[in-house]
From TrEMBL:
Binding site for pyridoxal 5'-phosphate: 103-104, 136, 221-224, 279
Species in which this protein is naturally found: Candidatus Anaerobiospirillum pullicola
Cofactor annotation comment: Binds 1 pyridoxal phosphate per subunit.
Protein name: Acetylornithine aminotransferase
One GO cellular component term noted in the UniProt record for this chain: cytoplasm
Lineage: Bacteria, Pseudomonadati, Pseudomonadota, Gammaproteobacteria, Aeromonadales
Length: 404
C-alpha cells in the first residue's frame, strides 16, 4: 500500500492539518520521516514522550508486559495496576487513584467526582464549577466546556451547565463570584495550551482559601505540568498548595495512553461501585510502563536534570533573542517553555513553526503568539544547542521574509 501525506486528506477526518512529512521512526530526541529525513524533536508528542523515542527501558517493559498481560478490564484487578497506584500514593501522599486513558477522561472523572461529592454532602444545588479563561482541559463535552477557550466548545451545544469562566490570576473577581453553590474550581498551575501562562502564587493561595471557605473542591489539571515536566514530579509541589483532586496523563506512561486522578480516601468514597468506570483505564500494559516512568522521573537527579536543561534552554533562547529581537517574553518552568513573539510578528506564529520544520526542528505553538518548547525530559545540552542552531536559521528566514 502506497502511503503519502495525501493519504491523510483521503481517509482521515479533517480535525487536524498535519505537517507535510509522514513520520516513521524515532530515536531519543530525533524523529525520522518516511524518506529518512531527520528532525530534532522539541514536541515530545505534546509533552508526552518524556523519555524520548525508542527508549530501551520503555521498549523492554512494553514487550515483557505484552507477553504477559495486556488487558483484563476492571472487573478484575492485576499486579501492574496495583503497583503503579501504590507508587503514586507513596510518592505524592494522596490516598486513592483512579485510572483512565487520557487527560480529558481524567478531568471528566475529576469533575464528575466533584459534582457527586457536593450532591451527596450538600444537595443538588451545589453544582457550580469555576474555571479560567485560556485554560484547556480536554475535548469531551464536559471537559471542553470547562476549558476557557470558547472556540473549542462552540457548535456542540447544548453544553453542560453550571460552568463559569473567570479571568486567570484575578483574585477579586474570584472572590466576588465563588459562593456556597460552587462545587469545584479547576485550574492549571501553568496554563499549557493557553500560552505557557503561570498562575501567580498569591492567586493560587487565594483560590485554595476561597475553596476552603465555600467547601468547594480544588482540582489541579496537571495533565501537562505533571510527571517531571516542570522540574518536580507534580507542579503543585513548587507552589505550596495541594489540590483536593489532581489529574494526570500525558507523560505518565511515556507515550502509551494513560490518565488518572489522585485524591483522598474521603473524597474517593463518593465514587461507589457502579458510579463511574472505564473499560481500558488502568490496563496492565499502560500501568507497567507508568511504574517504570515513575521510578525514572521521580529520581531527584532526573528532576534536577529537567530543571538544569530548562534553564539552559531558556538562556539559549534569550541569547538568540539578543541577536534577533523576536521574543517579547521567554517563560515557563523546567522543560515547559514558552517564547512569546513580539507584536511586530503578529500572525507569523504558524510561519515560524513551518520554517522550523523546513530546517528540521519540530516545535509547538500555544495560544496565538507563543512558541511552545516541550522536548523529551532526557534532552541534553548538545541536542538543545543543535535545536537552537536550527531555530536560528528559521529566525533568519523569518526576518528575511518580513523585510522582503
Ligand atoms: C493535553 C491536555 C489535556 C487533554 O488531554 P488528552 O489526553 O488530549 O485528553 C487536558 N488538560 C491539559 C492541561 C492538557 O495539556
Amino acid at each position: 500500500m502506497k502511503i503519502t501525506r495525501k493519504t491523510f486528506d483521503e481517509v482521515m477526518v479533517p480535525c487536524y492539518v498535519p505537517q507535510d512529512m509522514v513520520l516513521e521512526r524515532g530515536q531519543g530526541c530525533y524523529l525520522f520521516d518516511m524518506s529518512g529525513r531527520k528532525y530534532v524533536d522539541f514536541t515530545a508528542g505534546i509533552a508526552v514522550n518524556c523519555l524520548g523515542h525508542n527508549h530501551k527501558g520503555v521498549v523492554d517493559v512494553i514487550s515483557k508486559q505484552a507477553s504477559r498481560l495486556i488487558h483484563v478490564s476492571n472487573i478484575f484487578t492485576n499486579n501492574q495496576t496495583l503497583t503503579l497506584a501504590s507508587k503514586l500514593v507513596k510518592l505524592t501522599g494522596y490516598e486513592k487513584v483512579f485510572f483512565v486513558n487520557s487527560g480529558a477522561e481524567a478531568n471528566e472523572a475529576a469533575l464528575k467526582l466533584a459534582r457527586r461529592v457536593a450532591y451527596d454532602d450538600y444537595g443538588e444545588e451545589k453544582c457550580e464549577i469555576i474555571s479560567f479563561a485560556h485554560s484547556f482541559h480536554g475535548r469531551t463535552l464536559f471537559s471542553v466546556t470547562v476549558g476557557g477557550q470558547p472556540k473549542y466548545s462552540t457548535g456542540f451545544g447544548p453544553v453542560p451547565g453550571g460552568i463559569t469562566h473567570l479571568p486567570f490570576n484575578d483574585i477579586e473577581t474570584l472572590k466576588n463570584t465563588i459562593t456556597d453553590k460552587t462545587c469545584a474550581v479547576m485550574m492549571e498551575v501553568i496554563q499549557g495550551e493557553g500560552g505557557i501562562l503561570p498562575a501567580d502564587l498569591d492567586f493560587i493561595r487565594a483560590v485554595r482559601e476561597l475553596c476552603d471557605q465555600h467547601h468547594a473542591l480544588l482540582i489541579f489539571d496537571e495533565v501537562q505540568t505533571g510527571v517531571g515536566r516542570t522540574g518536580s514530579f507534580y507542579a503543585y509541589e513548587q507552589v505550596g498548595v495541594r489540590p483536593d483532586i489532581l489529574t494526570t496523563a500525558k507523560g505518565l506512561a511515556a507515550g502509551v495512553p494513560i490518565g488518572g486522578i489522585l485524591t483522598s480516601t474521603k473524597i474517593a468514597a463518593h465514587f461507589k461501585p457502579g458510579t463511574h468506570g472505564s473499560t481500558f483505564g488502568g490496563n496492565p500494559l499502560a500501568c507497567a510502563v507508568g511504574s517504570y516512568v515513575v521510578d525514572k522521573v521521580s529520581d531527584p537527579a532526573f528532576l534536577q536534570h529537567v530543571t538544569d536543561m530548562g534553564e539552559f534552554l531558556r538562556a539559549e533562547l534569550a541569547r538568540l533573542n539578543e541577536k534577533y529581537h523576536v521574543f517579547k517574553d521567554i517563560r515557563g518552568r523546567g522543560l515547559l517553555i514558552g517564547a512569546e513573539l513580539n507584536p511586530e510578528y503578529d500572525g507569523k506564529l504558524a510561519t515560524l513553526q513551518k520554517l522550523c520544520t523546513k530546517h528540521q526542528l519540530l516545535l509547538l505553538t500555544a495560544g496565538s503568539n507563543v512558541l511552545r518548547l516541550v522536548p523529551p525530559l532526557i534532552i541534553t545540552k548538545a541536542v538543545i544547542k543543535e535545536g537552537m542552531k536550527l531555530l536560528e536559521r528559521a529566525l533568519q528566514d523569518l526576518q528575511a521574509e518580513a523585510q522582503a
